[in-house]
Amino acid sequence: METASQLPFGETLRDRLGQPAHASVLESSPRSQVWRIELAGRPAVLKQLVAGPGADERYAREVAALSIAGRASGTPVVPALLGTDPAERVLVLEHLGHRRPSADWIVDYAAALARLHATAGPGDTGALPRWQGPTGADATSFLTFAEALGVPAPPAARDELDALVERLGRAEGTALLHGDPCPGNDLHTPDGVRFIDFEQASLGSGLMELAYLRIGFPTCWCVTRASGPLLERAETAYRTAWHAETGTALPDAGLADACAGWLIRGDALVERAHRGATDHLARVPDEDWTWGTATARQRLAHRLGVVAGMATGHGMATGHGMATGHSMVTGDGDLRNLGALATDLRRAVMDRWPAVRPVPKRRP
What we know:
- The chain has eleven helices and 13 strands.
- It is of the alpha+beta class.
- The protein starts with 10 loop residues before the first helix and ends in a 12-residue tail after the last helix.
């Protein structure tokens, strides 16, 4: 328990919100400090971003995203932002109760994610950075990984990958993207799902985060896979909520591209602190490592199966087999050669490391 005088709660916040009391530390990432406090007898959350490289930008992103998301119609999709202190990188937020998610949690999650995405529009251009997709270096790394496993890439695979990178780089959309919409950053409250921790928020196509449900939460410690019927329910819930909020249908094109983009990013195999400096795909032939609920090879095997199924029109991978779920190839770029390469690579991964198990079905 910390005293009010030890908290980063300055005069500006005290004048607006009153004196904080009964502070207790909450679990958080190394990039922030978080406390549960009371204001006028009601619980609230105090969050301070720790000084360091990028801290000011992450703070600005979180404040901007919470302000945009606070415009959601009907049920909120984020906690209310009660106050800020930019000089100290401090936010004060509504405290929300969280209950254990149900077995089919991704359905409500997907609907809430669509409503979150829909809170931003063209008028918010410039309020947040644009979403950044994979690069040519990611494409090269992926092909080098295939070569290391002795899997020859079809001659047209490089051209497909270059075209994929180009398409993702110009993907249209002004959706409010969370940046890390992971299990743990979703609070399942009695009134619905709300999202927290917007330090990586951006604007772009909502398909880039709808893809999380198929590709296995690529920026997250908690990887899960859903059965075909459950996945279809969740994707339908997203599309239905998006249409209800925007009056427009979600484009058919783009989901296969989004999944393929996450597949080729080696940084999607490690936690944030280890991204940006190392070719992590190059590590996989020689070592495996655990991050959260899955190892790097588990993550990669799952993603290869998903992209193989989507790019070739055979649905998505379930466990270690291929299931005939509905494919989203229509309108995406030509990914046939990448799909064939993903199929061969997945087989090579399973032959070389037969102990690799499917990623979990249930979140912890």
